[in-house]
Design brief:
It is built from 21 helices and 20 strands. With 665 residues, the protein is of the alpha+beta class.
Length: 665
Amino acid sequence: MTRENRRISAARKWLRTAVAGCLAAGAAATPILAKSPTVQDALNAIQPIQSDVAFDRPDKEQIAKCVLESINEGGVTGYVVRNEAGQVLRRFLDTNKDTKLDIWCYYRDGIETYRDIDSNFNGRTDEYRWLGTAGIRWGIDDNEDGKIDRWRAISAEEVTAEVIAALRQRDSERFQRLLITDEELKDLGLGEQRFQELAEKLPIARSAFHELAGKQKLVTAKTEWTNFGATLPGVVPSGSDGSTRDVIVYENVSAMTETDGKSQPVSIGTLVQVDATWRLIDLPPLDTALAGAPTGHFFAQAAPRTEAATNNEPSNAAEIQKLVDQLAALDKNLASTDPDEIAEAYQKRADVLEKLYDASTGDDDRGNWLRQLADSLSAAVQSAQSLESVEQLGALVTKLKEAKAADDQIAYVAFRSVMAEHELAIQDEKADFNKIQAALEENLAKVIADHPKATSIVEAMMQLANVYEFGGKDQEAATVYRQIKTDYANSDFAKRAAGAVFRLECVGKSMALKGRILDGKSNNGAFELTQLKGKTVLIHYWATWCERCKEDMTKLRELQAKYAKQGLVLVGVNLDAEIEKAGRFVQVNKLPWTQLFETGGMDGRLALEMGIVNLPTMILVDKDGKVIANEMHAVQLESELAKQFKESTGSARKASVKSDKKSTN
């Protein structure tokens, strides 16, 4: 352990001791007791274990105006530090009621950006998470020495930033944490030839990085990562070259960097998605961003040109590079929390992307810039309700039609234009939701009818089916889902569509549900619905980000208490992306029924096999394992269960009377 980490560890040990008495006493929102740390201790003595953390650091004058408060919320105790305006600066928490802190949270502009976690409650930090506007990195420290040993979650953007940091610091260990592991490579399900190609690259990449970092000249001690550069990710579909599952990849990825004020792209290569992480498969081909050599492993195409280095480059290469640099600079502003600033940043970004679309000549480049443009305008509407972005999407559709652009491109933008108009309409305080919903149905149906052969239209079809479901038009929804299942059989959309068809038509049919129990204690963690034959089972699909799901749980508790003796059993199916978030919620709220969890969240097996598109979703199953109702709502449960158990009780009473008569005779 380094001297700095020993200092931090000692400071934390002191703070644990100082607050133990207060936590044990359960001092909820009370004045700070004598043993409490001071505000200055909480802000200065306790620092994040990891160094690259963006958080508020008030000066001496500001600290004098901060306050330290005890908290006790939902069984979690600890301290919160607020500034003069009431914004949170720090939170130190005890989540398992052992009177010792186990989570340390750091904030910037009122948003939590990072936390250190003692997940096994042994007094040493073993997890580091970046949150909010700071990214999604989640590092695991297996030996608790203050250094990240592996990534549980990391985005493609953050992988490129880590590569630049590893090159800058000549840090082989930091680079190796980003490489796909042998086990992960096996789990990708690639065909034999492609698997062998990658398996041969990995040992070389692990051993050769230090030499590469020492020889290369692109990244120096002054180089800073500024932005992620790539076109849209692609899917290597199941069945390609013997593969057994879809694999999502980014090809020809680059990192935009800045050294002494000069922008420079650095080629990173290919990234592969593995659960919540993105992985490298080889050494970064540092020179290819300038040379234009092919770098794609899965799709084998030339990397985008970034400098006028050869006579074969387009005459406007310098103009395109200038626009790419502008785009990189604009992306820095997207981390703002001010809606007006966000809208302005997205609008400027869209203007640059449209210029890139117009300036590019290759079909692939133009298609990629166009998709980014449409997505950027859509994000502006979702993040800041930008009317200007809605109008620009509509104008872009008209522009593409007049230019007789590819049908797939027009469909891609047209769908986003329809959804942007809908998003803006529902924000109106005087909105008539029935009219808005009818308009959405009509507009989606028109986009689909206008572009029946466009590959991107499947998104619009899924959305239309969802709208039909929401409006109670199950037959219409099932028809669209069937079409998706048939016409897009090799896509993930087809899996969800097939599940949705079954869900919509499952009343009277047996339902198969199996999975892993979230707490891992019962039956070695395994669960099958057939185990509950003879019981009436209510299956509740939910997630911690779904407020209505959590509201329904109060009613579910009441119903379980009322009907448990009559045979009611509840089974929760959590569809969070992170098991830790789901597990902590279940632990803190002490949910007294079985909870299932598998990786993937809304895109995981448990969601896809029943075509779950909205939460909460409740399904009621009878004692024979047959579905009674597939669209239950909390307000309907009381009457439905009363009806079920009344009929059950009546049947049992009649059977008992018959039995008594036989015995008398």
